[in-house]
Specification:
The protein is of the alpha+beta class. Helices cover about 30% and strands about 15% of the residues. Among the domains are: about 60-135 and about 185-355, Catalase core domain (Catalase HpII,  Chain A, domain 1, Beta Barrel); about 420-485, no CATH class. It comes from Kolteria novifilia.
């Protein structure tokens, strides 16, 4: 048997007794001089960090991206520079609306966030298992999430709030149709796709821009629970997807995904019939086919959940040279909101935590100090720029290419003239009869407690997407579709 290590305090001081507190006699009170006891209790009181507001419960694993197709004509990002190139990564899956103790099988979108440890720094692709979202204007994000959380008085889930918001936000129709189909209850994290969802930009060595959407397509096949199966599994094993992912990797059954892109030129974007940066819509694959550029594999479990999964911090603002943002309003807000959430939850130096730290490049920044600063904190080097003492300097080749903008600064009505029904209707129409039945049944079950006013308003949206969609929900709720349509 290997020699056991000596137990120490967090400061490395040997602990003489970890079984008994220091007391004044066998029956006396505990003494304040028991420094080991004080350290254990004080640290215990601080073991929990603030829970993520969204994506609170998750699972993660390490892996690699292997490039299978050369797209260097579109991007100067070095991770895509040659076929066969491998980049290490960490991927975190999550549910969105529930708390840390919620069930993995709950009806909810799933987060799909990937941190690529590239030689040019970390690139974070922070998306979901759906290619669209409920809203297109970030001003509405806090309102949306409040409806998915608990009622402020009863502390219970609130179907009225959910459907009141959806019925007053027709742009949610596409995502609502996905969420209440069986795609809203994936069987496991391995059996679902991931999407960057937003439009991003690729910049090539000549400074030319191509708009891009990222798709991560499972090789395990899509598998979903029915609503009845999801309810049953949630009661029997609330951690079903977390368990499945860990066990599969532990057994060497490494899950893989096809890493794909859709590409659109600036000229195509300018001539596109709708806003290509609208997060509530997809780009038609017939016009912009998927191009497979790599294979993503997960092959290593974390050694410690808290250190590596709970403290993992992803930000869409982590964009390496050759990959940039777009005018997508939701993305623009996430560029601020995500790193700001990490500064609140983990501290100003969260990038120094091992799971978040850049691995293949030196970090040469002028940020100093703050809670939990690791290393020498820059030593005696200057903490300002420009300076005359050999400090790091900017690299002009990493600048984004100029993007032409037009229009007056104003608050534009994002719903005016927008078609929020066609793509939701298209999705409904390609479903099988069984899939349509499940979708309508799931919606009916969720909407049953809400008022007729909200039901009527939401059913009119379903009818706008497809008459059979609206009629099916109305009949499921025992309502006359003609009366619903006649009521304003």
């Amino acid at each position: 048997m290997a020699e056991r290590k000596t137990l120490t305090t967090a400061s490395g001081i040997p602990v003489g007794d970890n079984q008994n507190s220091i007391t004044a006699g066998p029956r006396g009170p505990v003494l304040l001089e028991d420094l080991h006891l004080l350290e254990k209790l004080a640290h215990f009181n601080r073991e929990r960090i603030p829970e993520r507001i969204v994506h609170a419960k998750g699972a993660g694993a390490y892996g690699t991206l292997t490039v299978t197709k050369d797209i260097s004509a579109h991007t100067k990002a070095k991770l895509f520079s040659e076929v066969g190139k491998k980049t290490e990564l960490f991927l975190r899956f999550s549910t969105v609306g529930g708390e840390k103790g919620s069930a993995d099988a709950a009806r909810d979108p799933r987060g799909f966030a990937v941190k690529f440890y590239t030689e040019e720094g970390n690139w974070d692709l922070v998306g979901n298992n759906t290619p669209v979202f409920f809203i297109r204007d970030p001003l509405k994000f806090p309102d949306l999430i409040h409806t998915q959380k608990r009622n402020p008085q009863t502390n219970l889930p609130d179907a009225t709030a959910v459907w009141d918001f959806f019925s007053l936000s027709p742009e949610s129709m596409h995502q609502v149709t996905i969420l209440y189909s069986d795609r809203g209850t994936p069987r496991t994290y391995r059996h679902m796709n991931g999407y960057g969802s937003h439009t991003y930009s690729l910049i090539n060595p000549a400074g030319e821009r191509t708009w891009v959407k990222f798709h991560v397509k499972t090789n395990q096949g899509i598998e979903n629970f029915t609503d009845e199966e999801a309810v049953k599994v949630s009661g029997e094993d609330p951690d079903s997807a977390t368990r499945d992912l860990f066990d599969a990797i532990a057994k060497g059954e490494f899950p893989t995904w096809r890493f794909c892109v859709q590409l659109m030129t600036e000229e195509q974007a300018n001539a596109f019939p709708f806003n290509p940066f609208d997060l509530t819509k997809v780009w038609p694959h017939a016009d912009f086919p998927l191009i497979e550029v790599g294979t993503l594999e997960l092959n290593r479990n974390p050694a410690n959940y808290f250190a590596e999964v709970e403290q993992a911090a992803f930000s869409p603002a982590n964009l390496v040279p050759g990959i940039g943002p777009s005018p997508d309003k939701m993305l623009q807000a996430r560029l601020f909101a995500y790193p700001d959430a990490h500064r609140y939850r983990l501290g100003a130096n969260h990038q120094q935590l091992p799971v978040n730290a850049a691995k293949a490049t030196d970090v040469n920044a002028y940020q100093r100090d703050g809670f939990m600063t690791f290393g020498d904190n820059g030593g005696g080097s200057p903490n300002y720029e420009p300076n005359s003492f050999g400090g790091p300097v900017e690299d002009p080749s990493a600048k984004l290419s100029p993007l032409a903008l037009e229009g007056a600064a104003a608050q534009y009505d994002h719903r005016e003239g927008n078609d929020d029904y066609t793509q939701a209707g298209d999705l409904f129409r390609i479903m099988s009869d069984e899939q349509k039945s499940h979708l309508i049944g799931n919606i009916v079950g969720s909407m049953r407690p809400v008022s007729d006013e909200i039901k009527y308003r939401q059913i009119r949206h379903f009818h706008g997407a497809d008459p059979d969609y609206g009629k099916g929900v109305a009949e499921g709720l025992g309502l006359d579709i003609a009366k619903v349509l006649a009521t304003e």
